[in-house]
Amino acid sequence: MKTYEETLHWIHELLAFGMKPGLLRMEWMLKELGHPEKELTSIHLAGTNGKGSTLTYLRCILQESGYIVGTFTSPYIERFNERISYNGEPMTDEELVMVSNEVRPVAEKLAATDLGTPTEFEVVTILSIVYFARYRKADIILFETGLGGRLDSTNVIQPILTGITNVGYDHTAILGNTLTEIAYEKSGIIKKGAPLVTGVDQTEVIQVVEEKAKEKDIPVTMLNKDYFIKGHEVLEEGESFTLLTQNRTYEDLHIKMNGFHQVKNAAMAIAMIEVLKEQSNFEIHHKHIYEGLLQAEWPGRFEKVYDCPLIILDGAHNKEGIASLRQTLISHYPERRKRIIFSALSDKPVNEMLSELYDCIDHIMFTSFDFPRASSASTLYDKCLYDSKDLEEDFETALWKEMDRMERKDVLIITGSLYFISMAREILKNMK
Fold first, then answer.
1. Final residue of a domain: which of 276, 295, 314?
2. What is the pLDDT of residues 299-324, one digit of tens each?
3. How far apart, in whole angstroms, are the C-alpha atoms of residue 161 and residue 21?
4. Which of 278, 333, 288 has the alpha carbon at shortest distance from 60?
5. Core-most of 5, 85, 215, 316, by most CB within 10 Å?
6. Distance CA 354, CA 237 (A)
7. What count of other Cβ atoms lies within 10 Å of the Cβ of residue 218?
8. Domain range holding 132?
9. Residues 6+ positions from 291 with CB-CB distance below 8 Å
């Protein structure tokens, strides 16, 4: 492969092979490549929501402390390369071509075996491991799971620290129908020798996580048991809070990202930093924690893209995400009328998700977007039981309609699938 476009075409072709949970294909490819995963110092993050934001807080704190940080995240918002980044900067097009040319022969050799063709996510995970092991050395790599944990392709790494943000009802067809089943899958990233920090708060989930940690003989640092959020205040832009840990009290912390869920993500990141300091030779001063939190931004997470009219993008792609969106809208815009543009993938329980918002919004416009598993606007409309609703299959048309209908103090929230948010963000950026 000689060009970026040719390389992306090869990677995206693998989407046709769907999702195939399991680690055998990953282990086979890593063996063929000489086990590059063993050369990495890493942290592993799982959870239903908040992985990307927590990872961003960690990255910014570590960078403020002078460390070089690699990250593997998904999905991307603007460009594919974002998924594999070095100190917050996406890998270059040339680097993607180089690494892909090293990995492709191994992927094609695997396809000829009984294990079959690797999935797109498996190949991108391998690309990230090879990139950080052989092309861009970093002090530490932060890996975010794609789906679940136990059978997720990222679970081939040997981290020095793990984190589970929360557990909720998402991807139930794959992960299970109960919180206990889903927690079992998420806690599959827990490994011997790697302490765990978690923000889970449901009794049945805590029990699963603690049992898994006990089985692996590792310590657990838990929200509302080992670290506590106090004095939370909503700011005009962002949030402030105080955090009590076993080591110290952090007074008057500030974050730019809106919502109490972001306070929880930031608190968990600090708890992870404290464990990292205790378990390794990483040196992080408390001032770097304050400065890192202020630097942290994550596109598509309650992101204000226009002031007049006020337009917000938020990738609330499951019930828990919608509940966090509701809480943030109420705390930050209690007096404003709220209009929603929504689109989602076809496997989402639309009415169950959106019912979280029914008591605090004024109108929903359903739309669609160009993606293989995207639902049509008419299907979403039919599933929704809210009275004040409308539909328009074309997003740009839907956007102009809603902007024309907005009054001066209205707020328009574009939400749903992160793939939809990525597309919407690009369109809105070109409108400016």
1. 295
2. 999 999 998 899 999 999 899 999 99
3. 23
4. 288
5. 316
6. 25
7. 17
8. 4-295
9. 64
